[in-house]
Design goal:
Order of helices and strands: HHHH
Shape: elongated
Structural class: mainly alpha
Largest sheet: none
Radius of gyration: 39 Å
Amino acid sequence: MGQKQSLLDTVIQMKMTSKQLARMSVKCEKEEKDEKTKVKKAIEKGNKDGARIYAQNAIRKKHEALNFLKLSSKMDAVASRLEAAERSQKMTQDIYKAVPGLSRALEQMDVERISSNMDTFEKLFEDLDVRGEYVTNAIDSTTATATPVDQVDALIN
């Protein structure tokens, strides 16, 4: 039996096909341009039947180019959807693998101990804030009394 093609291999193949279709579209556009040039030359020579045939060829090439471009776009869209499905599938697998570890971590968390630690942290933080404010007030009062008010007023005016 043959080996099953992975989703990633399918995406790569589709992207390559899309690029090939885009190149074919560009090639048809070039051929359309060439046919239009032939139309002009045939008209200049007075060959109306030849000009009509070249014009039909140019129109056909234009439609072929558009069709190849549409197919290329559709292949890109399908490849993008497949890539998204692949990423989603991998993310689901990763989540599935992470759940047991998270469960163990949650079991090891003691809610009462965490609450106690947070209360202690909050109390220490408040004490630090009070002491910082005390130091700031002490510095402000020291510098205010060291500077005469009349000199400050004179400097301002």
